[in-house]
């Protein structure tokens, strides 16, 4: 047996951050600059984290190109969330937005510029001026490579601030002491296969999304929801996991994303009759309605026989009228993606697109400081000592049931910075580490022993593929109660198989089979929380659209089955019991008036 308590090395830091995407590196920057000893673990080189793939922009009401202010941004985000977002967190994010964008500018982020030297901003879905009246230019962009520019800027600043990176290290489990406080993580060093304990006064999870629980996804292959799996195994519930965003414009058949910035620049969606069908569904915002709206409209067109191609199973995104010059200047990556993944020159002809899994609105519950919170008898939001979460793996919740484009990069910056500040303050007051419990590595050793002990069993790859196809079939754009119930049964069966995964190759050095098997144990937590939370929510809200609960309405896609009286509440899924509890949505902003719930039309 290679793994035992005897051959684990131990290291100590003020803070351990798991994840070197935009959120993790924004937090680490704040901490390294404050002089703390910070370790950042990442499965891949920092600048290969999924943030690098973000294309369209960062939302902030700078008002550089059209009149704007944070009140409009706040209103749009609440409405976009279908009233499941917490309005205190949304106010916090929208007010902080200009500040974190200017911070980035001062760090040297190469934003596109207007002739007067200010940051270029493009329109984006669901972002409006004057409370829904017309689209506004709010997305701060660096061509269609905004995430690339942002991640490189943050990495360079972290190198300058002397953050320690542990590259190709995979965190496996949280270590909680008898009081329930988190005192560090266990991690495997991929190159050697060695097991380590990293002790910390504070642990921050920034592991990104779990988009790889679906078969067709815009997400990177590393997005396996590891932070969510770690939290779930350590007894922390997962919030609002039924809400998954389908991005309207994934390249049909390839899954690769074409940014909403295309439509921001003026691209339009067409059905097989050559009709700009969004005019019917969202008369004011048209192609720039929020993503849940546009995805449902596209699916509806396909269902009613107006899809394109031999199988009538996609619609078209038309860009050629923007002109080759604009396309090459503002959307150079989209041009390349067209050629490489669809064999289409978008300056000349439209490109086939379908709604594709893109983003998880739910995650590890936190407050606006990034502190992880759980329900106790006294409180819905009791802080877990020593544990923070930021970025896509967290649920603060600013996106509610549907995220607006550009609000994720913003969320990473705002809450990464806020968590960094809060942790630095905590560190000032707490000079000592809490002692490590005697059973610190037991959970991890058990998992490794199970994998290495079995000589026959399931292949990790087969189990992972079955998770993905099951989620794709039973938790898609349009859901039915019967299909979700079936999904719950199937995922429960697959969970049994996860426990029977065996490693054929038990070697230590760069054993990617072991890494993959460990990832599947995270995938299943994310998949089961999604399926169970979805089947339990008997309404339509945001991205959760269930035909059984649609009320008759003149509007073919508005989620008319929203049931605020019974369901305006956050779901909390508990892994140990595979059961749900709920907590109220915070409708009270910090300083302004609440946006009262109403029907969403655009
Ligand atoms: C193609 C695409 C385009 C997008 N475009 C936009 C956009 O224009 N605007 C916008 O606002 N949003 C956009 N989004 C969403 C946004 O980019 C993501 O939500 C965001 O970048 C996630 O950042 P993160 O810091 O949470 O995680 P990530 O950037 O995904 O980073 C996760 C990090 O965690 C590490 N990690 C994970 N598990 C472990 C582990 N077990 N041990 C150690 N390290 C681990 C990884 O190595 C990585 O460093 C886009 C998303 C995609 C997929």
TrEMBL record:
Catalytic activity, as annotated: a quinone + succinate = fumarate + a quinol
Tell me where it mainly resides. membrane
Give the positions the UniProt entry annotates as the active site: 291 (proton acceptor)
UniProt cross-references to Pfam families, sorted A to Z? FAD_binding_2, Succ_DH_flav_C
Q: Keywords on this record?
A: Cell inner membrane, Cell membrane, Electron transport, FAD, Flavoprotein, Membrane, Oxidoreductase, Transport, Tricarboxylic acid cycle
Q: Which cofactor does it need?
A: FAD
Q: In which pathway does it act?
A: Carbohydrate metabolism; tricarboxylic acid cycle; fumarate from succinate (bacterial route): step 1/1
Q: Which InterPro entries would you find in this protein's record? A: FAD-dep_OxRdtase_2_FAD-bd (IPR003953), FAD/NAD-bd_sf (IPR036188), FRD_SDH_FAD_BS (IPR003952), Fum_R/Succ_DH_flav-like_C_sf (IPR037099), Fum_Rdtase/Succ_DH_flav-like_C (IPR015939), SdhA/FrdA/AprA (IPR030664), Succ_DH/fumarate_Rdtase_cat_sf (IPR027477), Succ_DH_flav_su_fwd (IPR011281)
> What membrane topology term does the record carry?
Peripheral membrane protein
Where found in the cell?
Answer: Cell inner membrane
Q: What is its EC number?
A: 1.3.5.1
Annotated positions binding FAD: 19-24, 42-57, 226, 392, 408-409
Domain FAD-dependent oxidoreductase 2 FAD-binding positions: 14-409
Which positions does the record annotate as the modified residue Tele-8alpha-FAD histidine?
50
Q: Which GO terms describe its cellular component?
A: plasma membrane
Q: Which residues form the Fumarate reductase/succinate dehydrogenase flavoprotein-like C-terminal domain?
A: 466-601
Q: Any idea what this protein is called?
A: Succinate dehydrogenase flavoprotein subunit
Record the organism.
Answer: Ramlibacter tataouinensis (strain ATCC BAA-407 / DSM 14655 / LMG 21543 / TTB310)
What does UniProt list as this organism's lineage? Bacteria, Pseudomonadati, Pseudomonadota, Betaproteobacteria, Burkholderiales
């Amino acid at each position: 047996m290679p793994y035992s308590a005897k051959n684990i090395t131990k290291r100590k830091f003020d803070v351990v951050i798991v994840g070197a995407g935009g959120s993790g590196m924004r937090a680490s920057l704040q901490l390294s600059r404050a002089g703390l000893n910070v370790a950042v673990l990442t499965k891949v080189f920092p600048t290969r984290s999924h943030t690098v793939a973000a294309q369209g922009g960062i939302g902030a009401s700078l008002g550089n190109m059209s009149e704007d202010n944070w009140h409009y941004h706040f209103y749009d985000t609440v409405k976009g969330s279908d009233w499941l977002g917490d309005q205190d967190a949304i106010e916090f994010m929208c007010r902080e937005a200009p500040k974190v964008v200017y911070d980035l500018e001062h760090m040297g982020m190469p934003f596109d510029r207007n002739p007067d030297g200010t940051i270029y901003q493009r329109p984006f879905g669901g972002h409006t001026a004057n409370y829904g009246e017309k689209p506004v230019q709010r997305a701060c962009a660096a061509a269609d490579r905004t995430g690339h520019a942002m991640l490189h800027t943050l990495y360079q600043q972290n190198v300058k601030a002397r953050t320690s990176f542990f590259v190709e290290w995979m965190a496996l489990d949280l270590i909680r002491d008898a009081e329930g406080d988190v005192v560090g993580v266990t991690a495997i060093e991929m190159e050697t296969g060695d097991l380590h304990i990293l002790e910390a006064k504070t642990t921050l999870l920034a592991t990104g999304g779990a988009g790889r629980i679906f078969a067709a996804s815009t997400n990177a292959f590393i997005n396996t929801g590891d932070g969510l799996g770690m939290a779930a195994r350590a007894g922390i519930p997962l919030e609002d996991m039924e809400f998954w965003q389908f991005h309207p414009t994934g390249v049909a058949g390839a899954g690769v994303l074409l940014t909403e910035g295309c439509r921001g620049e003026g691209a339009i969606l067409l059905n097989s009759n050559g009709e700009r069908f969004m005019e019917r569904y969202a008369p004011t915002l048209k192609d720039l309605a929020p993503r849940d709206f546009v995805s449902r409209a596209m699916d509806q067109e396909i269902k009613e026989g107006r899809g394109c191609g031999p199988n009538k199973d996609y619609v078209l995104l038309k860009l050629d009228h923007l002109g080759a010059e604009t396309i090459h200047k503002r959307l150079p990556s989209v041009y390349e993606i067209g050629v490489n993944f669809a064999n289409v020159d978008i300056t000349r002809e439209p490109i086939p697109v379908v709604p594709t899994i893109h983003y998880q609105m739910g995650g590890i519950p936190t407050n606006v400081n990034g502190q992880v919170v759980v329900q106790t008898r006294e409180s819905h939001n009791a802080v877990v000592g020593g544990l923070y979460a930021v970025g896509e793996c967290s649920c603060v919740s600013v996106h509610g049931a549907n995220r607006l484009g550009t609000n994720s990069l913003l969320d990473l910056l705002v809450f990464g910075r806020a968590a960094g500040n809060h942790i630095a303050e905590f560190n000032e007051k707490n000079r000592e580490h809490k002692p490590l419990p005697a059973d610190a590595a037991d959970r991890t050793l058990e998992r490794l022993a199970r994998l290495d002990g079995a000589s026959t069993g399931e292949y990790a790859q087969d189990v992972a593929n079955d998770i993905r196809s099951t989620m794709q079939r039973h938790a898609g754009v349009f859901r039915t109660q019967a299909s979700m119930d079936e999904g719950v049964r199937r995922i429960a069966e697959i969970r049994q198989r996860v426990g029977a995964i065996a490693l054929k190759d038990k070697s230590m050095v760069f054993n990617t089979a072991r890494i993959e098997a460990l990832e599947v144990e995270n995938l299943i937590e994310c998949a089961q929380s999604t399926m169970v939370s979805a089947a339990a929510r008997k309404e339509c809200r945001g991205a959760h659209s269930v035909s059984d609960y649609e009320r008759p309405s003149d509007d073919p896609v508005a989620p008319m089955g929203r049931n605020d009286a019974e369901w305006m509440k956050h779901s909390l899924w508990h892994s140990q019991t595979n059961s749900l509890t709920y907590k109220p949505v915070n409708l009270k902003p910090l300083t302004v008036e609440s946006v009262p719930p109403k029907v969403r039309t655009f």
